[in-house]
Protein 1
Amino acid sequence: MGLTDDAVDPVRFVDERLGASSLARRALRYVFPEHWSFLLGEVALYSFAFLVLSGTYLAFFFSPDIEPHQTYAGPFRELVGFSVTPAYDSVLRLSSTVPAGLMVRQAHHWAALVFVVAMVAHLARTFFTAAFRKPREVIWMFGVLLLGVGVFEGFAGYSLPDDLLSGMGLGIAYSVALAVPLLGGALGALLWGGEYPGSGVIESRLYIAHVFVVPAIMALLIVLHLALVARHHHTQFPGPGRRERNTVGNPMWPGYALRSLGLMLLVFAVLVGLGGLVQINPIWQWGPYEINRATNGAQPDWYLGWLIGGLRIMPPLEIRVWGKTLVPNPFWGGALFPTVVFAYLMAHPWIESRLTRDRAPHHLLDRPRDHPWRTAFGAAFLTWVGSIFFAGSSDRLFYQVGIDYEAQVHVYRVLVVVLPIVVFVATKAVCDELRRTRAAPALGGPPTVVRRRPDNAFEELRE
Amino acid sequence: MKALARLAFLAGAVRALRRRRPPRATEDDADAVDLPRRELPNDRRAEAAVAILLVVGGLLAAGFGVLVVADPQTQLLGGVLAAALACVGAALGLASKRVVVQEVDVEERHPPRAEDEARLIEELKAGGEGISRRRVLIGAAGVACCGLAGAVVLPVTGLGPALGDAPNRTPWRRGKRLVDARTQAPLKVDDLEIGSFQSALPEGASPEDLGAPVAVVRVDPRALRLPPERRDWAPEGFVAYSQICTHAACAVTLFRYPVYEDTSKGPALVCPCHYSTFDVLRAADPIFGPAARPLAQLPLAIAADRTLVAAGPLSGSVGPSYWGVKPSSPSTHARGSLPPRGGAPWA
């Protein structure tokens, strides 16, 4: 036999070079506790993977330049004769003549939406089950950071094609930068290379940010997030044999690995299906950006809705001193509001442990009902951000249903304050009631006790 | 009907599945559970199903490859590739549940140990043994850090020139002719009737200049309530305002003009981004939405050839607010009082 051991035993071949077999063995036996809600984070992870793959493909065809302007020649007939930038032209070409180009572009856009949805759902799950508690506060903070960076990455992405929606979004971003008290003018000029719309530098800066700097940061954050999760092992709901000091569940190999890969492919299938079948951001309908054009027909991605809402329902308040504008209006809804939301999310694990004086590590999850204060607060916080989010859609409601816009804004200004309080009180009451009755409505109503009578019939016992 | 029945069956199945889950137990009865568990599957039908799904998925994926070359239609491509991915994904999911060994395993956690931490602290301290002028060195290292941080951060200022006075410099001068933003044709007074809206640029200006675009609207001259010093800025009911919203730099492209004056709201320019609303009759005073500054007004005149020309520069800064903007005129916010009472608001 001319074969060496190396050739017949690939595991030994690899291990003799990497020396990682004990690590790999432990990884294969890593235990994943089971609950459907634990998959939300995986959906986010796989959406990110899809974004990297599809984005790499798109980068082969995209040009970030906005000089020199050229006259569009087709095939989109409505745009023939328009003066377009290479950026806009390259996305039009990608969407019309590159095979599968439009499908991949749309799937990429859809993946961004799904990515942020999954992150928000995962964050809510983590919050309501208190998975953020010691020793996982830092994992939570990396997660919140990922959400913030992810929203920015999405904004940078749809700002690149230099269509009308891109330009409107960048104009608003410039105004928010300008609205930072005192430093705003310098900040705006710094980022845009002068007064808006600048000389094209913002587009090239956003491009390198979108395709390299921000994804690299996100990849690093994801690695840190997951490495720390693995270090402490997953949390689990209380159950038979489940303790603070162990994890009970499905080992990585073979069951969990197969299931997770299956989930990845199903996420990809949904994204590709959406990309092929459901139109998104048809930039040939918006047209190229010029500073004197704007439309209500092109709406930003959903995850910016809360900022749009914040900008819209803010009353016309600007703080002026000595005839100068100290705090311009977009600061409130566009800068202060998201800063407060993200700063609070980052701080919540520390605030809660301080208020409850609970400094012990926790590996078993809470049921939301068992901690009415936290659950009610979380629901109220979500309602606060959510009602501002919905305020951002009031113009579509006006155009499509005909509800008076100004009246809607007045109502939202009240709801944003009142609704969180109502939701807080209601959630607290529901939690208390569920705890008292030990009802399980999601599992088919409260438990009943039956007794067999001497005549063999059954009767229900009431407490 | 059939679909409904199927849906009901599905809901029932889901509920049954959920009920099958073992009830929650406290730690006390935990020892009653036999862990870890390991069951060997023997499900030949599931194996066959997985094999079929894998083959179908593979064929569909290959079909996608053929379509990309032969007939790249977006919908067909997306549908076929999604079906391929879904088949393989379903195969893996089914394999995980029915084909491979089913295990519930227990893994102990290994929380950090206090003695390891104590040893780490000792080793960290040991690294600093024998240093006599500790404070001097810490101070010096602090200086080095600050200097290096400055050296890294300060070049950032090279990114862009200061904004300076840019929002107050616009291409509008006395005598500048107004042209159609799209066709570059001069605006003729007699082409625009009362209630019309037109986006205009100064002749020969860069379309990339925030100070350039203005919204020209024509209203009934008797309805105008401009401040006294602007009385002759609106010949024959033509008024022009900067088209860049003072809230967030969007183009003000909506013109609200009352269809029936008794019940409709008055004529106003509206920004489609955040719906800041500016009263065109009263010097673009913001009357609704987040904008707190009026749009700068362009004084107009009618030339001998009946085209519109600028009668002077814009009345204030253009675009969103920041420390350096000059208000067009102090906003009145005195809604419903026309013209504003007292001298102060328009002083």
Protein 2
Amino acid sequence: MSESTSESIKVDIWSDIACPWCYIGKRKFEAGAAEFGGPVEVEYHSYELSPDTPVDFDGSEIDFLASRKGLPADQVAQMLARVTSVAESVDLHYDYDALKHTNTVKAHQVIHYAKAHGQQLEMKERLLKAYFIEGRHVGRDADLAELAGEIGLDPDDVLRSLAENEYLADVRADQDQAAAYGIQGVPFFVIDGKYGISGAQDPQVFAGALAQVRDERVSA
Amino acid sequence: MTDSVLLGMIGDPEAASCVDGVCTVPASAAADPASAADESTSA
């Protein structure tokens, strides 16, 4: 095996916390990477689907979506049920009754904080689980610091970082990069800086893309 | 530094994703595909 084939394949992933397909896509990507079997380096990047969302919303997820999109509440409920069903298929147990809709810009800053401390992947997973499965609030500084503490980060330093907007510029840089790539939706995966994969694709798609990049390196 | 060029796209262009707060439920992703073609919601 040549030296180049032993190097990790970099996968940059743009996603939001308040994005049901991002969590489902994360699981499908992880399954694809496992199927591929080679070394893969993952880095998450910030993408805000609804930056105008308030930190606190006094109502259910269905209330929020119905008021925001003007859709009948029963139709929204059916749609959420379908997303929940697909999530179940990858062993994610979404609880929309408990979910607390919120603005995610602070959560993205915490993910950047965690990256700077070597725990980005753990923080990303913790926030997605907190939001979709546990009904935890992921928009307030205190809640985010508590969640960061649960993966071993210093809650007090996270509070300081959020108060100073220490990583807001990094969030904006990610969003600028997404715009440069022409990314219009998430999840969005960039494999080895070359190929884009949009959406929660089947694991075989990710495995095939990683294999393609590996083969191209061998033949280069 | 901002990169701006991808060599191409891989996979199903209709795969489930969220755009501007609207999350589609394409038929291929729905538990009951016959009744869920291209419906969408925000989440």
